[in-house]
UniProtKB/TrEMBL annotation:
The lineage of its organism: Bacteria, Pseudomonadati, Bacteroidota, Cytophagia, Cytophagales. This is NCS2 family permease. The keyword Chloroplast does not apply. It is a multi-pass membrane protein. Pfam families: Xan_ur_permease.
Length: 431
């Protein structure tokens, strides 16, 4: 096997291991909207495989596409439980948001939006995403936990799960420092091996609930796929006037989540076209659009590019082979989804924490001595993880940039497209 091909395959495996959690988490959230868990799991695999393969084959980018976190919560708790849509109508709203994405992509509107974003905000988005995925990693590992007094806090240091996570984190960090190829995969496997005995040495693993109870509570490896949600979207029913805000939020959120992810990954990795735009942007955006449209048809919330793709990029993934590898790895889990529980959350979370450190590198390109640039950048950086939303963080970046230019009388420096986006961002935040 050629060295570059081996690197791309290892990168694809690394990315898959960093984001495979979506196969379990997405059904867990959407099932609360009344959808069958097994059917959503099948739909999640289909969207992830379809989107990632299209990204690799058509857009030739090392970026995984899968149902987005955050938007699945909006689907369940706002669209269905808040606005009162049936899950069939909510799937129809996802479909229509995909149609809107597609139209915006065909007419290059999304590309124009990206070109209108100031360089400082682009750098800030990359750093904000880095902090975001690091925060997600610490949360998934249960290293950072709820604290009634301070909102968040650290888990007990003497807890065996915490100690195992830290051991894996330092081991993987050491491999990265020594520039070992496949370091993140080795780190995940090493931490998985350390985690297995926790349930036997420190009591019943099922009471720990940190994804380390597989060998204690073995239930088998095989499960048949469930296609009962395919074609269930109520496409016409979702077009009621009262439901239009739902379609708008689906559209806005995935639009800016996708843009944020592409910009952040491009800034952190250098995967750019000659004009400075993210690599193969138009085809990548079209892929994002089709993934969302496809998601509505097969029974899932919107598909989007995944920030965890940074894990594979850091491992050396630079071509579509990385995304193709990850996409193919999703498919068997329509049948072998229980196997995923073998890898505990504390193992896969290590990749997110470490990759987050690499994504803050663009911070050095921001002119921190200029408040017109530093204030919008800072708000973007901190609000992405603090609000747990890419869309909210970048929206405040747009708005603050535009307002500061208005206050200083530098209206000529405001890109008309950015001004329109800022107004739409205000509307989005108001909803």
């Amino acid at each position: 096997m050629k060295p570059q091909l081996k690197t791309e395959i290892l990168a694809g495996i690394s990315t898959f291991l960093a984001c495979f959690y979506i196969i379990i988490v997405n059904p867990a959230i959407l099932s609360q909207a009344g959808m069958p868990f097994s059917a959503v799991l099948t739909a999640t695999v289909l969207v992830s495989a379809f989107g990632s393969l299209m990204m690799g084959i058509y857009a030739k980018n090392p970026i995984v596409v899968a149902p987005g976190m955050g938007i699945n919560a909006f689907f369940t708790y706002t669209a269905v439980k808040g606005f009162g849509l049936s899950f069939e109508e909510a799937l129809g709203a996802v479909f229509w948001s995909g149609v809107i994405f597609l139209i915006l992509s065909v007419f290059k509107t999304r590309e124009k939006i990206i070109q209108a974003i100031p360089d400082a905000i682009r750098h800030a988005v990359s750093a904000g995403i880095g902090l975001f995925i690091c925060f997600i990693g610490f949360q998934n590992a249960h290293f950072i936990v709820d604290n009634p007094a301070t909102l968040v806090g650290m888990a007990m240091f003497k807890d065996p799960v915490t100690l195992t996570f830290l051991a894996g984190l330092l081991f993987t960090g050491g491999l990265l420092v020594r520039k070992v190829s496949g370091a993140i995969i080795y780190g995940i496997l090493f931490t998985t091996a350390l985690a297995w005995p926790i349930g036997r040495w420190w009591g019943d693993a099922s009471t720990i609930n940190f994804g380390v109870s597989t060998l204690v509570n073995y239930t088998g490896f095989f499960a048949w796929p469930d296609f009962s949600l395919v074609g269930k979207a109520d496409i016409l029913g979702s077009l009621r006037y009262a439901y239009l805000p739902v379609i708008f939020v689906f559209t806005f959120t995935i639009l800016f989540d996708g843009i944020s992810t592409f910009i952040g990954l491009a800034e952190a990795s250098g995967l750019k076209d000659p004009d400075g735009s993210p690599q193969n942007m138009r085809k990548s955006l079209l892929t994002d659009s089709f993934a969302t449209l496809f998601a509505g048809l097969v029974g899932s919330s919107s598909g989007t590019a995944y920030i965890e793709s940074a894990v594979g990029i850091e491992e050396g993934g630079r071509t579509g082979t990385t995304a193709i590898t990850a996409g193919l790895l999703f498919l068997p889990f329509m049948f072998f989804s229980p196997v995923l529980s073998v890898i505990p959350s504390i193992a896969s979370s290590i990749a997110l924490v470490l990759v987050g450190s690499f994504m803050v590198i663009p911070l050095t390109k921001i002119n921190w001595s200029n408040p017109e640039e530093s204030i919008p950048s800072f708000l973007t950086i901190v609000l992405i993880p603090f609000t747990y939303s890419l869309s909210v963080g970048i929206s405040f970046g747009f708005i603050s940039w535009t307002v500061l230019k208005l206050i200083t009388g530098k209206t000529a420096e405001i890109n008309p497209i950015l001004a329109i986006i800022s107004v739409l961002s205000l509307f989005f935040l108001w909803l």
